[in-house]
Fold DNA mismatch repair protein.
Amino acid sequence: GYCIVLVLETTKTYSLEDGLTEEAIVTKLHTCRYHHLFLHTSLRNNSSGTSRWGGYGEGGLLWGECSSRHFEWFDGNPVTEVLCKVRELYGLVHEVTFRNVTVASEKRPRPLHLGTATQIGAIPAEGIPSLLKVLLSSNCSGLPVVYLRDLLLNPPTYEIASAIQETCKLMSTITCSVPEFTCVSAAKLVKLLESREVNHIEFCRIKNVVDEVLHMHRNSELYSIVEMLLDPTWVATGLKIEIETLVSESGWISKKIGEMISLDDENDQKISSSLVVLNDFFEAMESSWRGRVKRIHAEEAFAEVERSAEALSVAVTEDFLPIVSRVKATMAPFGGPKGEILYVLVDEICRGTETAKGTCIAGGIIETLDSIGCLGIVSSHLHGIFSLPLNTNNTVYKAMGTDIVDGQTKPTWKLIDGICRESLAFETAQKEGIPETIIHRAQQLYHSLNVKDAYLGIDNAELENRCSNADLEFLDEVEAPSGTNPIQTPRIETQNPMEILLKEVTTSVTIICQKKLIELYKQRNLSELAEVSCITIAAREQPPPSTIGASCIYVLFRPDMKLYVGETADLEGRVRAHRLKEGMQMVPFVYLVVPGKSVAMLLETLLINQLSRQGF
């Protein structure tokens, strides 16, 4: 048979396949990408004894494939001579070694015939639709498609094929969310690493890959899958590795990269801001380099930028703003008398009345001041004002900054951009000497406001039984007045606000949906009682394959802590669509599978109303 030697210069590897038919050789040349082609002189002599290659049928197919390409003849030992040619082409010294990644071809089925591969659309051909485009979803492209095509053209051994099949079966039955499975070209990464041209994005991709390996290793449902993938990976890459080594090396790589690059959840590299300089200016100056390398590695450079930003702010304040003020003083704003400028300061607007109506009155006042071009500052603890549909053009929201010192929230006494929906009431009360028992009870009452509707009035014993397995570990029981059910309130934990919100919403969704499903079951609208099981899709995760075609309810947690409730039969597509929007790339989801679209639509409406009433 024929023999083919494939050399990959970037990864310094080579593989040798022999015993191939002419069709198999042509198929490989037709489908693989290569920069240089070398033909051994033995191909010139066929079995008929003539040196006219392809002149008598044998080798004609191969000659037709090669004659249209640029190639060179070579002689001697195929592996040794080809590696010498590669060293010469790329200017490598003789001491550079290439690793043999040949996978034994014993017991492997014969490769697909060229004609068959073309007819079924495994190889592109005019007039024949691509088989993989028909079989795979539209968002599947790149390396996964190439891998599947190679499996079709060069079927693996029975053992490897069985491992792939078993992996697919396991993937179709898991209920937990799965990693995004970042696909990166190994050859491209090696080349960038060797040339020291890897940027922040590529390092993030490498870290994503190893973090996904670690995630699967830690997850009880995914651990067996990552184990089964080792042998198919060995066949595809020629690199055989044990699971312990893979996990250990992945952990080391993740740690090293994490020590160098700035990650998404780090907030010590915010773009400079100023009350007197447009934010767009700082965005244009700093967005191209901030958030790439950890600040600790370039502390002096960061400090210099901050000093420059402060100096610019001072210069604008002292030199430019006085000129603007003098110009304004000589102009007549909104048709008023010349030089008349309205400036208003309001502290704690509408504080002396009922909160809801006071909030709306404050909103009306702000709209009026905005419409007449008034300059001024309005302060308030009426956080509901941020949710009002105000018609304003010039109003800008500001907040008083805070910082975490020794685990405690402390005010910085600095005005920053943005909205603040929290206060330091409990911290201030503690500082002023209010007893700890009162503060602790106040915290319990405060948190109960957001979840009490989910727990009050639930006297259905079956619901209590069905929800007994829900994730309620973060709740403490608080004594309630006699004759009422106990109120469950969150325990104060050192978690970030998004984690707390995730737990609270998951619990509420579980109870609301389970109660409704029990009601539908009793009304005989459901043939069997479905048990609610909420699954979290964290950042850089996606739903499991078991959700394909299933009716699902999902809750999206926006970065501003607001919720979006939806229903779909294509959860993976919906998650992907949401994350394509600006600022939504890392948002988490909670979802549950329900029996049918009509039930999903019913629960969607119910959750929108109930979660809103509970303060979410």
Notes: The first strand starts at residue 2 and ends at 8. The mean pLDDT is 80. Residues 342-423 form a domain with the Rossmann fold fold (CATH 3.40.50.300).
